[in-house]
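ok so heres the complex, two chains, lmk if somethin looks off
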Amino acid sequence: MVDQTGELGASIRYLSQRFSMPEKRAAAILNDVGTEELGHLEMVGAMCHQLTKGCTAEELEKAGLGDYYADHGWGTFPQSAAGMPWTAAGIAVKSDPIADLQENLSAEQKARATYEKLIDLCKDDPEVLDPLRFLREREVVHFQRFGEALRIVQDRLAQKKFYMHGMKKGCY
Amino acid sequence: MDRRAMITKIRELAFASGDLGLYLDTHPKDINALRLHREYSKELMELKDEYQKMYGPLTMHYPSKDEWRWIDEPLPWQRGNY
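and the predicted structre for the whole thing:
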């Protein structure tokens, strides 16, 4: 649940991109969505913790978590559903407002799709299903806000006498 | 309002204030959204203050009197404490 398009990747991506975002509305959305995603990482971690707390090694092995138990016991480790540890190699920070915001739009859609897969796999437990639905809805809202930020940045770039950083230094 | 009802209301208000905040980031001139954000945020501040006076700190920035009460408060993944 913590792959490159998951909550940890989202937090680190947005909170890193914000420093070089030249437009104040777009920078604010990166800052504020990045912060919200840290809260979502806590929700995902809380669910994993609560679902495995008190389980025996045998029960975890039966549930397909034998390898995970060997490496991490009852700990909560940031890795994808397929067992890949989280790494910053899968996120991009380009200091190019269009490239960065486009990456975020894509990441939000991939996160939404992942939650839909998890909801498909979750048959009956409302204490798992409800937070998954909530987190899926937030991805949709973030996609909307990033789309607006992209439009704001594109409008600004279309104005006359707007200089990209590097083309003419210090114009932001 | 008991403790559980109070913390639930605080979470609801924080969600409303935060979601409107994101909307206002890209629509800073929307007067209706600004008014709603002001109403929810004001109620949130008042309720958090009331809660913290009665039950204890919600963050480590709340002033403690004689003992450090922050470590005794339930962390978000610890259920059944309210």
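quick notes: The radius of gyration of chain A is 19 Å. thats all i got rn
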